[in-house]
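Write out the 3D structure for:
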Amino acid sequence: MSYILAIILSYLLGSIPFGFLLTRFAGLGDIRQIGSGNIGATNVLRTGRKGLAALTLVLDGAKGVVAVLICEKFFPGSGALAGLAALLGHLFPIWLKGKGGKGVATTVGVVTALSWPIGLTIIAVWLLTAFFFRYSSLAAIVAIGLLPLYAALFGRADILWLTIVIEILVIAKHGENIKRLINKTETKIGKAHATPDAQ
């Protein structure tokens, strides 16, 4: 029962749509009607409000951290499940009829809370890929796609299953980006507002 409670609480925390709420409070209307229609930091940046986009990025990551740490404190051993529930909440928020973001920032938060070396590795790989190829979405896909490898390299066999599930979920959410990358129609960093593709 304690694990079930941890999952429910983490899902609800993860489903808080910070990008949607912040843009509403800022008087920018419905973020889902702007740009890509996603609720994450990348799309918030398309409003021209860099500070708001940065805050969205931080809060989306923070909810992953908080979900894991709180559940581990009160329900020992539930951290990985709580992290997955928080990510699912972000990807499929009940408040927005299941239409959430792409999960990169929340993934970084979840993984960092479970293993800070892996969290830092995700960020480093994102930055390197973005620097050399100039595609925010490609950087996200590569950084998250290698998650199981990071878990293996850092000896975290206990969360290997979680990294595989996260990898599948996040890459699936980037389906449209993958199509545009293949068709060479994806926007490069610098040609439009871009941050880590962390919707």
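The two ends are 31 Å apart (CA to CA).
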